[in-house]
């Protein structure tokens, strides 16, 4: 039997996909947006809400990669049963015959061992139903489909979901100039949140590159929704059930909050490469955040952080902009700068994929969180800084 996941006439279950160890951050974002019955999964968060919540989650969540809406669940013991139960779904209620679609599959277990074959059987069932009922079928489009379907099979349990986001939500739309190996926007926002920044102190990236961390911080400080610069590129806008009035209402509600935060601190960026700083300036000017961020050109060890309590979050080069043999020396210089130029007013977080080079920082991290930047296995390191000796710091804490 094919069932439809639904909690009431107006609310339904949704799944927000995210990155490794950003689940707690995303769950809190959804909670603040009004989502209900939140459950943390692996690289995902399940929650409940109505269509307005689906629109709001897409527009506002900084750490979500996609918002999926489950619409069918059933058990299947073999390929034939998968085909038959997919065929039973009333697909004509979901999409029109002249629409395009694609299927992205994930399978695990011993029954369905090839995700591509599961996608093929699902596609065949959909198009065969349309051919039988209408004499023609919707087309496949893997580049820009009207509908993106996710097929998830675990052992014998099958779930079909609609991707309401379309393109991944890390594609914010503000990158006009891109440096070498820029950090993923969703990860950047997640790092800022994991570092505990509540827009209650200065923010500084001493190796800012093309400015992703700076822009995500400035958007947060100004209450700018995560997808404000994305335009109308959302999958749900092509759905038959899309309600333009509801979408405009949600968007207007969130846009009215822009600039409402009383942010009285500074956001600084620095990079040694003038060409990269130009890229950062171009991105900031596009977002109209260039007046909110102060940029400096020079080596990080020569640039002092802003005065007052400052959160430092940075993504040092992994070898793309600096020779590999110089990485260890650069990380040694990083540690020396943390100890000598920064002090108790600074809280430092650093992401790196070079586990050998990070040993040369010369400081013991108080946190070491596994994260993923693209295909790179990384660690997000926290360094608690202090003035004077470590012994004096512990004595002061004891007092």
State the helical fraction. 25-40%
Strand order of the largest sheet: 2-3-1-4-8-7-5-6
Order of helices and strands: EHEEHEHEHEEEHEHHEHEEHEEEH
Looking at the structure, what is the overall shape?
elongated
Number of helices: 10
- Radius of gyration (Å): 24 Å
Tally of strands: 15
Low-confidence stretches: 389-399
What characterizes the major β-sheet? 8 strands, mixed
Task: Give a concise summary.
The chain has 399 residues and is α/β, with parallel strands linked by helices. It is 31% helix and 24% strand.
What descriptive keywords fit this protein?
399 residues, alpha/beta, 10 helices, 24% strand
Structure, described:
The protein has 399 residues and is α/β, with parallel strands linked by helices. Helix content is 31%, strand content 24%. It is built from ten helices and 15 strands. The strands form two sheets. Strands 2-3-1-4-8-7-5-6 form an eight-stranded mixed β-sheet. It is elongated, with a radius of gyration of 24 Å.
């Amino acid at each position: 039997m094919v069932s439809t996941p639904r909690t009431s006439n107006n609310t339904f279950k949704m799944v927000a996909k995210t990155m490794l160890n950003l689940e707690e951050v995303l769950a809190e974002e959804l909670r603040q947006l009004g989502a209900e019955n939140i459950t943390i999964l692996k690289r995902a968060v399940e929650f409940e809400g109505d269509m307005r919540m689906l629109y709001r989650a897409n527009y506002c969540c900084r750490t979500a990669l996609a918002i999926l809406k489950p619409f069918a669940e059933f058990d299947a013991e073999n390929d034939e049963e998968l085909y038959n139960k997919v065929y039973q779904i009333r697909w004509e209620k979901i999409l029109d015959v002249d629409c395009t679609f694609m299927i992205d599959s994930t399978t695990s277990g011993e029954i369905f061992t090839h995700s591509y074959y599961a996608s093929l059987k699902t596609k065949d069932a959909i198009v065969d139903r349309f051919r039988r009922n209408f004499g023609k079928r919707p087309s496949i489009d893997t580049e820009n489909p009207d509908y993106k379907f996710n097929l998830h099979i675990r052992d014998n349990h099958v779930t079909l979901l609609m991707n309401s986001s379309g393109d991944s939500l890390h594609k914010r739309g503000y990158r006009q100039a891109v440096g070498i190996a820029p950090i993923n926007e969703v990860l950047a926002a997640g790092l800022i949140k994991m570092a505990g920044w509540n827009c209650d102190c200065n923010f500084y990236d001493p190796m800012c590159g093309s400015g992703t961390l700076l822009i995500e911080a400035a958007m947060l400080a100004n209450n700018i929704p995560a997808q404000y610069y994305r335009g109308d590129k959302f999958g749900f806008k092509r759905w038959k059930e899309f309600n333009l009035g509801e979408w405009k209402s949600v968007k207007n509600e969130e846009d009215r909050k822009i600039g409402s935060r009383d942010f009285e601190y500074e956001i600084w960026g620095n990079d040694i490469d003038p060409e990269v700083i130009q890229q950062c300036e171009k991105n900031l000017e596009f977002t109209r955040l260039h007046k909110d961020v102060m940029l400096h050109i020079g080596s990080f060890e020569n640039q002092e952080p802003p005065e007052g309590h400052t959160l430092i979050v940075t993504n040092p080069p992994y070898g793309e902009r600096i020779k590999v043999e110089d990485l260890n020396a650069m990380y040694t210089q990083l540690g020396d700068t943390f100890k000598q130029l920064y002090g108790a007013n600074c809280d430092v977080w650093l992401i790196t994929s070079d586990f050998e080079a990070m040993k040369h920082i010369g400081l013991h991290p108080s946190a070491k969180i596994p994260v993923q930047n693209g295909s790179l296995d990384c660690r997000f390191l926290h360094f608690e800084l202090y003035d004077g000796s470590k012994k004096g710091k512990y004595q002061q804490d004891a007092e």
